[in-house]
Each structure stands twice: as structure tokens, then as C-alpha cells.
Amino acid sequence: MLLISCPNCGPRDETEFHYGGQAHVAYPETPNDLTDREWAEYLFYRENTKGTFAERWVHSTGCRQWFNMLRDTVSYEIHSIYGMGQPRPELQASAASAGTSKSEPTQPGEFTQAGDFGQAGEPGLAPGASSPTATTPISSEGV
Q1: What does the pLDDT look like over 38-74, one tens digit per residue?
Q2: 20 to 30 A Cα–Cα from 15, which one of 8, 98, 121, 122?
Q3: How far apart are CA 6 and CA 38, in angstroms?
Q4: How far, in Å, CA of 116 to CA of 8, rounded?
């Protein structure tokens, strides 16, 4: 169980909070000019960082205020909590290097940040999955 320090209410149990997704995702400047694919990328595509990640949280059963948090997605260690609209704080080199990603999987089936599944074959495919062929239907947008 995480102990999250709300900027307004102080330390509280994580059950009082709700995750709000990746922080610092900018709204498109000209949304009417976006294609369907660009809208889909804005709405649904987010980073999946192994290590330090900037997240949005809301204290839903307390002050109901939103805030940002830098949290390690591997160890769940909270590095920093800061207000909405504030820039992401810089971490010291020792803390930042602890969240570096590996380039090669060490165990079969281990996930890497590059999208490999640690198996022989196509990167990004689940073990045992075959790569798309000419007979596999794919939409015109490629999604």
C-alpha cells in the first residue's frame, strides 16, 4: 500500500486517490486540423516507461484536487509531488540512473522498454504469435 502525500491534506492512504494517467500531455494547438489517426494517438497512445514516470493523481475522497507525481514504476518509490501546471522537477543523476532501461532481456519472457517480449521472432509480438501476412486484414490507418 502506498502512502501518498497530498499537497493540500498531507500523507494519506492510496485508496483515497485515483490515477489520472500520464502527466504533461499537451492538448493539440489546432484540434480541428488533426486526422483520425492523430486524434487516436493523442487520446490513447501514452508512454509505458519502466522507471521514473510523471503521473497525474486526484485526491478523490479528500480535497478533490489534482496534482502531479514522479514515481518509479518498478519500485513504486515516489520521487516528487508537485502541483498542476508546474514543470516536471529534475532528479539527481543517481536517482535518474536507477531508472534506466535495459536494452536486452535477461530472462525469456521478460519485457523490455523497446517492445520486445524476450522471445525469438518479431519484436513486439506475443510469444507464439505470427507476423501479419498479406492475407491478414489491416485497416487503412494501420491500426
Answers
A1: 999 999 999 988 999 999 999 999 999 999 999 999 9
A2: 98
A3: 34
A4: 41
Q: How many CB atoms are located within 10 Å of the residue 57 CB?
A: 21
Segments in 46-139 forming alpha helices (H): 93-98
| Grid cell in block for residue 79 | 520521487
pTM: 0.61
For residue 52, the number of C-alpha atoms closer than 13 Å in the C-beta half-sphere is 20
Q: Single out the residue of 2, 97, 115 nearest to residue 59, CA to CA.
A: 2
Amino acid in position 132: P
What's the grid cell of residue 5? 502525500
Mean pLDDT for the chain overall: 77
Residue with the three cell numbers 498531507: 10
Indicate if the pLDDT at residue 114 is higher than 80: no
| Residue linked to cell 505470427 | 130
Q: How far is the first Cα of the chain from the last one, in angstroms, to the nearest whole number?
A: 37
Helix/strand/coil for 19: strand
